[in-house]
Design goal:
alpha+beta; Neuraminidase; 4-stranded antiparallel beta sheet; elongated
Length: 378
């Protein structure tokens, strides 16, 4: 029976492969007959990208750009043409010159909180990078902060006084001292997240029982830790949805980590990515319709930032850089994206991207011409 199933699977895969080749050949034939039909060229360009045929994809995209700039822009934003050309689809800008890591938007999207690798402290600044100030000023190592409401309220992870582990902390910087919620955690504790005072604080921690990274919920009212996962494999980099009903995270069940969504009872409800590369640091945005994440799927060893549309499954590249871009934070309206990058002089800084202003096909063509006919082609 197993042998029959194996043979059946082989036949199905072979038929699928033959159909794919026939479909590609059919598209090539249509374009050959009607080289000025933009919609046919559009479909062929996307198909070459699916096949990872870089040279054919770029040549077909250039032809499309001469026929229909709007369709050319669509292909550029939805495929790997940017990677083939070595051009970033958007225009990331540094928020400030400070060494600012793991940036997070405030609930109203007007402020940013971050931690600094340089001094181990937590700071905030306006959306524009102005009104920069430190929130903490102690001898602890404070990391991965998030807002805990409007104003100067935060959750973050910091080292214990004897540096033997980490602790989960709430701090109202408008008055009072930091409040330790959980102490005695292992040195691997990360990414607290908050949506509402009615919901537990979400965070990741190394379980002393499973010896693996797990997802925890801390109920402040009950003073109780809820172990949401209890596995022999890692679940990391977790974030709430805007209503607190879902949790997106990276699962390491397989050798290559992918992104999943569970509910607050720990039940798997959706798989977001299924890719040979490593997909990490997911974050909900655009009213939970999209998920930003970092991945090494572009090749070259570096991580870039992408945005996945949950309804269509389309993954849009946001950055393409030889350095590492990680920890994206997507605004609730989906218009802005923060991320951490060591591009430039190698020191990690916070960058911001307007997702409403991608590079236009006209700008891209001009940049290609400036580089030379094959400039940037991988």
């Amino acid at each position: 029976m197993n042998r029959i199933a194996f043979l059946t699977l082989g036949v199905v895969l072979l038929v699928g492969c033959l159909q794919a080749k026939a479909s590609l050949a059919s598209l090539e034939e249509k374009v050959a007959r009607n080289p000025n039909k933009a919609r046919a060229v559009y479909k062929l360009a996307r198909r070459y990208c699916e096949e990872d045929s870089a040279v054919q994809a770029v040549e077909t995209w250039k032809r499309l750009a001469n026929l229909d700039l709007e369709l050319a822009s669509d292909v550029f934003l939805r495929t790997k043409v940017a990677v083939y050309l070595g051009v970033e689809p958007f225009f990331p800008q540094p928020v400030s010159d400070s060494i600012a890591m793991t940036p997070r938007f405030s609930p109203d999207g007007k402020r940013i909180v971050f931690h600094s690798m340089k001094n181990g402290q937590i700071g905030t600044m306006d959306f524009s990078g102005e009104n920069f100030r430190w929130i903490t000023n102690d001898d602890r190592y404070n990391v991965t902060p998030c807002f805990a409401g409007l104003g100067d309220q935060f959750f973050y992870i910091r080292s214990t006084a004897d540096e033997s582990g980490m602790e989960l902390v709430y701090y109202n910087a408008e008055g009072g001292e930091p409040e330790v919620l959980l102490s005695g955690l292992s040195s691997l504790c990360e990414t607290p997240d908050w949506v509402s005072d009615e919901l537990p604080v979400l965070f990741g921690y190394m379980s002393l029982d499973t010896k693996s990274m797990e997802i925890g919920l801390y109920d402040r009212k009950a003073g109780e830790l809820i172990e949401l996962t209890h596995n022999a494999y890692m679940d990391r980099f977790l974030r709430y949805s805007s209503d607190g009903k879902l949790i997106v995270y990276t699962n390491y069940r397989r050798l290559q980590p992918d992104i999943y969504i569970m509910n607050t009872r720990g039940k798997l409800v959706e798989r977001v990515t299924d890719w040979p590369g490593r997909d990490i640091y997911p974050d909900f945005g655009d009213h939970d319709r999209k998920i930003a994440f970092a991945s090494d799927r572009n090749g070259g060893g570096q991580f870039d930032v992408f945005v996945c549309d949950r309804r269509t499954g389309v993954v849009m590249p946001v950055t393409y850089n030889e350095r590492t871009d990680t920890t994206p934070d997507l605004s609730n309206d989906g218009n802005w994206l923060l991320f951490q990058s060591n591009r430039g002089d190698g020191r990690p800084r916070t960058y911001i991207v307007s997702l409403n202003q991608p590079i236009s096909a006209e700008q891209l063509l001009a940049e290609i011409e400036a580089k030379g006919e094959q400039g940037g082609l991988r």
